[in-house]
Amino acid sequence: MNRLIKTIIILVLLYGVLFFAAQQFEQKITYFPKNNFNNSLTQKYQLMEVWIEDIHAVYSNKGGDSIALFFHGNAGNISTNEANIAYLKDAEVSFLMIDYPGYGLSKGKPSEQTLYDSAQTAYDWILEQGWTSDQIVINGQSLGGAIAIEIASKNECKSLIVEATFTSTYDIAEIHYPWIPKRLFIPNRFVSKDKIGDVECPILILHGDRDNLIPYAFAEELYKLAPEPKYLITLENLGHNDVLGYGKMTDQKEKINEFLKTATIQ
């Protein structure tokens, strides 16, 4: 009996160690923050630097009928997304871009829930500035796409744009880390495929057909699950990092700009 109890205790302890190690590993492969901010961007692009509770952000108010709430990917911060800032400025739309907890100057630690909370706080802040929900374009790239889908599924908005995003982190892990027991060891799940059906605004999905990190099939599945009106733009010969930053989307620039401003594509 004593031997059985000792065996059970050892197994429980071993499981605890493995569980902790796996979760630490999963955190490290999910979040790659940089903790800085390039102040020169505010002058270069005429941005207002704002704090929304503990969240650092940049804000560009050009007026008009649309404001983009932009969520970047899992790596870097606002400063490493200069290409997105430049694109949004060139498109002549207002926008708010935030850094998640633990990114840039934002306080806190990144997790699925803290990212969702910071995004909701940013959405609420936009409303407090006098914008209406039917003017907010929720826009996310890669991991930011999952955050965008979460916020769009729970709030009214003008439209939703997601780029190079995924159905869930389980599905990504199945491709890149099939040996991880996902249901037990992945706390950050981001199950967008269960949420996109709740979005009640026009949806634009952009994805490169040579994306080896987040395969194009994920875009097809999200598109299939999304309600109408919806659009899927295939970015031919582009990989994952080609899509991030809009830099090589020149062939589709007019369509993206049209959707940003009108929530439709002719």
How is this structure best summarized?
This protein is of the alpha/beta class. The chain has helices at 2-30, 40-44, 82-90, 112-128, 143-154, 169-176, 182-185, 216-225, 240-243, 253-262, and strands at 32-33, 48-52, 55-60, 67-71, 75-76, 94-98, 136-141, 159-163, 203-208, 230-235.
Q: Can you count the helices?
A: 10
Straight-line N-to-C gap: 74 Å
Percent strand equals 15-25%
Number of domains: 1
Strand order of the largest sheet: 2-3-6-4-7-8-9-10
The main pleated sheet reads as: 8 strands, mixed
Features of the shown structure:
single chain, 266 residues, Rossmann fold, 10 helices, 41% helix, globular
Question: How would you portray this structure in words?
Answer:
By secondary structure, this protein is α/β, with parallel strands linked by helices. It has one domain (31-262): Rossmann fold (3-Layer(aba) Sandwich). It contains ten helices and ten strands. The chain has helices spanning 2-30, 40-44, 82-90, 112-128, 143-154, 169-176, 182-185, 216-225, 240-243, 253-262, and strands spanning 32-33, 48-52, 55-60, 67-71, 75-76, 94-98, 136-141, 159-163, 203-208, 230-235. The chain has an eight-stranded mixed β-sheet, with helices on both faces. Helix 4 (112-128) crosses helix 5. The longest helix has 29 residues, at 2-30. The protein is globular, with a radius of gyration of 20 Å. Residues 15-19 have low confidence and may be disordered.
